[in-house]
Amino acid sequence: MLNVDYALAPQHPFPAAAHQAFDVVRWAAEAGGDHGWDGTRLAVGGQSSGASLAAAAARQTRDAGAPPITLQVLNYGVFDQAGDPADKPKPVPKPQLPLPVLDLSMGAYLPDPAQRRHPLASPVFSHPDELRGIAPALVVAAEHDRLRAESETYADLLDRAGALQELIVVPGADHAYNMLAKDDRQTREMYDAISGRVRDALKA
Length: 204
Description:
Blueprint: H1 16-35, E1 43-47, H2 49-64, E2 71-75, H3 99-109, E3 137-142, H4 148-160, E4 164-170, H5 177-180, H6 185-201
Parallel strand pairs: 1-2, 2-3, 3-4
Helix pairs in contact: 1-2
């Protein structure tokens, strides 16, 4: 497994990290033989902003025609960078993502409003036809996350494009549930489920 240390905003705004994610996937495919892994069997994944970057890497890979990605795992991702954060649903009184955090992160990553609907930043504005041929996706959303709706919207678009493997909504969970929950049983269960999907996808 490769854990990507991508360039961070605001010093490196969009699309720096999205392009880096694709560069890493391409390198992993080309250098696998030198490092002991099979570069023809690749999956990408991430959580929160990392899920957005994984989706961007999968889209760039599809557009470039290589390298092949077998599965993308998108765990409580950010898929709408153009909408007003105040319009994002607030399922619980004190969500893990308060409005100031959403405003700050959007402004740092995408300071130019004209770029906020770019498909590598906000894939929810894509037409299903624009997603055809992209790697199959496992989309995981947290029930009480302010970003749940955009995960579900993107999952629906992927499904209509024939690219959704599965949508899982983690009950009773909020954003970053796997890092902030007091009871890690649910996190272990989700990681077991995710790792199982990855193993199945990467079987020779």
